[in-house]
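Figure 2 data, in text form.
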Amino acid sequence: MMDGRQMIRALFLDVDGTIISTRTKKIPESASEAIRKAREAGVKVFLCTSRAKQFLSNLSAIDNDGIVALTGAHCLDPQGRDIGCRPMAAEDIAAALTDVLRRDVPVVAMSPECIFMNHPSSPQITDFLATGGLTLDDIPGGVRDIPDFLSAEDPVGLAREMDILQITGFFPSGEEDRRFLSLMPSCHTERWNERFVDIVGNGISKAIGMETMAGHFGFPMSATMGIGDGANDIPMIRRAAVGVAMGNAADDVKAAADYVTADVDDDGLAKAVMKYVFGA
């Protein structure tokens, strides 16, 4: 952590509730302008999100220097080339997807190039996409069905071919989270919405994605700033030299931050960037 007087060279920005308003599903003009000014001043800007790269089509107006996607499991440069890719254990994937197909639980499984769903038109997945202002039609390349693990001769081999980095399951917190983790001992949950949960490999977080970008682009973590609003942003906020929570963040996120800015709909991102990047 630092006091903001040193130069910020890299911004790591959460997407939903930070860049995009959860109320309007739009990017406030002040946020777009602040990001533009920061990049013009030579500051690198990274999107740092639990979304897959395929779920970022409605952020095309935001120029960036790279993407930390899937809660840190997938890092990409501005041209979309892989910088870091951390698949989940194939044994865990096979066990989990066999279980959800048997019980008919809606899930989304995400690989670097493909999005797999078993109930793409379900209310749960429709609501999940709408949370980010998206529909199925907004996903480049569409979606694929989850393979039939129930009849697969080699479910672990099938899972390895899928190269899954993150699974999102649609169930409330509690017993179902624990059931999933009992099937996936090499994974942990990251929950930022009461209606669904993201599951990634152990050791994966947005902070790991930040470190991957810092190493690739050659800037120190002591010159970074992270801004977010969800529980999955806490590792990023703590790892950044300056950690900022949005005004619409939960109390535990605010408690982890060096500074709490205004709500996303009250120019919160812009106010934080102007304060710490430009000293205004």
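Caption note: The longest helix spans residues 90-103.
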